[in-house]
């Protein structure tokens, strides 16, 4: 069951600095939503507020409401750890745990939380997650080898397997392909298409072709100048954003006239 | 204009461009290399000479008996004494000091790296730095006066020495463990948080696990730093010729203090007809103990390397 996210008038701060201002949007379940925009416009920052990873940075905080199926993630009684279990995240650079084998990396979400899991359940979870991340056939014979011995693209898919092994409802991806070659990128993009059947996917990307290829809806963020807060300029169906956007800035950006 | 073959002129021109000798830079390079090598050699001279002297002077006294007997009932030039009591004292007191300092030191390092913000963290860092500079005799006197409060004047036992050594050890453990924890990439912490792992479990299972090799090295360096301390143990633990395994009761001998005592004894008065009397036995004992102390530190280091290799992240 994928879940819907409603963001209402969110401002995001790093200490005194307001990084993102006045964002209101809806992220549909079982779909891929892409965030595009120039560097420093706050799309990654905004993504990190969706699973309360933003506040990990000292001095960072968020104003406004981020509602998951009507529950405010920033409500007083909400546990950020539970939020992150429900909303997984894949980072820009593949970051498998260097001390763990491939198998243990997939099971990290279970094992690190000191939860007991039977051997057969663990094997099933490892296989289903690695299959879900299109990595099973490549690593099934070396599950006990270290995860850091894989190639960059494989590591990134391992990180996706690790994220979906926790069984989240939403998966956030922060430029998941920017460190990968075109073939690995293609593998990840195919995977995103698969994943959207079960999950709500939000992806930040610098690659506009990628946004056009994989996403159903696209949000364009922009920044007025250095030191100014980033803003959501426009959000619409991907086809509309890339063919007939309402804002001139969006059109300039997607047609490559700036950025 | 494009040509099909390389002309002689362009070859010459390119060669001149690429092989510019720049004699000045070459000379500077050679001078600096020479300087660095001689600095290295200069630094090696005392080290090699020290190791050689200790090995040369201490090896003669080394024997199974020397390592297995204490000095109880040994007088004058009698060569049948040994350093067993001092080895045990050193191991027990340093072990207790390690047990006290490592948990405190690692917890403080975790606080500074993972939690510490603002004035409290700055104050802790500042006082840790100040502690690094405490003269060891002051640490010994501190421990003695601390225990005097509870046990009255004249108390001398192993734990007092362990506390004195901890005062010297904790700042070393904190600073080096802090550096090791900082080396753990932040991405791993974020990856763990993003899986819904609470902060404390992330620290225990990811941060400490990833840096365990570095932490072991830090602890061993700190042990090596204090295992040769003499002054604080002299005032806090006193001296004895007998074996004492109990750090909570009675005086204890340690290797550095033993070395100092033997060295200050000087020559033994031996009559010419006296058998079983070696005039310079005290000096020989001191050298033998010094060699043993260096060997202990080296064994600890080798053990640390093995632990490192065992825990280091593997890539294949």
From TrEMBL, chain A:
Domain ABC transporter: 5-248
Alphabetized SUPFAM superfamilies for the sequence: P-loop containing nucleoside triphosphate hydrolases
Superkingdom of the source species: Bacteria
Keyword Nucleotide-binding among UniProt keywords: yes
Keywords on record: ATP-binding, Nucleotide-binding, Translocase, Transport
The keyword Amino-acid biosynthesis appears for this protein: no
Alphabetized InterPro entries for the sequence: AAA+_ATPase, ABC_transporter-like_ATP-bd, ABC_transporter-like_CS, P-loop_NTPase, PstB-like
Gene Ontology terms, MF aspect: ATP binding
Alphabetical list of PROSITE patterns matching this protein: ABC_TRANSPORTER_1, ABC_TRANSPORTER_2
Name of the protein in question: Phosphate ABC transporter ATP-binding protein PstB
TrEMBL record, chain B:
Gene3D superfamilies: MetI-like
Keyword list, A-Z: Cell membrane, Membrane, Phosphate transport, Transmembrane, Transmembrane helix, Transport
Transmembrane segment boundaries: 34-55, 83-112, 124-151, 157-174, 206-227, 286-307
Bilayer topology: Multi-pass membrane protein
One Pfam family linked to the record: BPD_transp_1
Subcellular location: Cell membrane
Domain of life the protein comes from: Bacteria
SUPFAM superfamilies: MetI-like
Domain ABC transmembrane type-1: 87-304
Family statement: Belongs to the binding-protein-dependent transport system permease family. CysTW subfamily.
Summary of the function given for this chain in its UniProt record: Part of the binding-protein-dependent transport system for phosphate; probably responsible for the translocation of the substrate across the membrane.
NCBIfam families: 3a0107s02c
Protein name (Swiss-Prot/TrEMBL): Phosphate transport system permease protein PstA
Organism: Promicromonospora umidemergens
């Amino acid at each position: 069951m994928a879940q819907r996210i409603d963001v209402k008038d969110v401002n995001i701060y790093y200490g005194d600095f307001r990084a993102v201002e006045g964002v209101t949007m809806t992220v549909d379940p079982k779909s891929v939503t892409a965030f595009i925009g120039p560097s420093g416009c706050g799309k990654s920052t905004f993504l990190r507020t969706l699973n309360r990873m933003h506040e990990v940075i000292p001095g960072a905080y968020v104003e406004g409401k981020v509602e998951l199926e009507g529950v405010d993630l920033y409500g007083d009684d909400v546990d950020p750890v539970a939020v992150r279990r429900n909303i997984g995240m894949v980072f820009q650079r593949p970051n498998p745990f260097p001390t763990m084998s491939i198998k243990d990396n997939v099971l990290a979400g279970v094992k690190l939380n000191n939860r007991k899991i039977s051997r057969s359940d663990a094997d099933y979870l490892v296989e289903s997650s690695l299959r879900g991340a299109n990595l099973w056939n490549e690593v099934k014979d070396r599950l006990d080898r270290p995860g850091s011995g894989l190639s960059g693209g494989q590591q990134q898919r391992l990180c996706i397997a690790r994220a979906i092994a926790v069984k989240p409802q939403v998966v956030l991806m922060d430029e998941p392909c920017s460190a990968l070659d075109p073939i690995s990128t293609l593998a990840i993009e195919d995977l995103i298409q698969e994943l959207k059947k079960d999950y709500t996917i939000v992806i930040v990307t610098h690659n506009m072709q990628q946004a056009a290829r994989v996403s159903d809806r696209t949000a364009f963020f922009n920044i007025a100048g250095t030191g100014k807060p980033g803003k959501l300029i426009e959000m619409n169906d991907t086809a509309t954003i890339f063919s007939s956007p309402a804002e001139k800035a969006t059109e300039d950006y997607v047609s490559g006239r700036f950025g | 204009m494009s040509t099909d073959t390389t002309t002689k002129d362009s070859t010459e021109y390119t060669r001149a461009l690429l092989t510019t000798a720049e004699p000045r830079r070459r000379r500077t390079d050679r001078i600096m290399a020479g300087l660095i090598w001689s600095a290295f050699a200069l630094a090696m001279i005392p080290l090699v000479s020290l190791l050689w002297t200790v090995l040369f002077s201490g090896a003669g006294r080394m024997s199974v008996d020397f390592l297995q007997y204490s000095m109880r009932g040994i007088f004058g030039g009698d060569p049948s004494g040994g350093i067993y009591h001092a080895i045990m004292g050193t191991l027990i007191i340093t072990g207790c000091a390690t047990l006290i300092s490592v948990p405190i030191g690692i917890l403080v390092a975790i606080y500074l790296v993972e939690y510490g913000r603002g004035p409290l963290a700055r104050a802790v860092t500042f006082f840790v730095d100040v502690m690094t500079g405490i003269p060891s005799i002051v640490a010994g006197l501190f421990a003695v006066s601390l225990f005097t409060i509870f046990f009255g004047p004249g108390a001398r036992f192993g734990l007092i020495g362990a506390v004195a050594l901890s005062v010297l050890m904790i700042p070393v453990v904190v600073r080096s463990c802090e550096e090791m924890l900082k080396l753990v990439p932040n991405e791993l912490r974020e990856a763990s948080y993003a899986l819904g792992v609470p902060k404390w479990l992330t620290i225990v299972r990811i941060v400490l696990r990833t840096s365990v090799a570095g932490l072991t090295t830090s602890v061993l360096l700190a042990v090596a730093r204090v295992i040769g301390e003499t002054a604080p143990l002299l005032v806090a633990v006193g001296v004895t010729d007998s074996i004492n395994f109990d750090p909570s009761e009675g005086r204890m001998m340690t290797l550095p203090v033993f070395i100092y005592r033997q060295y200050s004894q000087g020559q033994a008065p031996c009559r010419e007809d006296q058998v079983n009397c070696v005039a310079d036995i005290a000096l020989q004992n001191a050298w033998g103990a010094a060699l043993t102390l260096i060997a202990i530190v080296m064994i600890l280091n080798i053990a640390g390397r093995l632990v490192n290799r065992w825990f280091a992240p593997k890539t294949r």
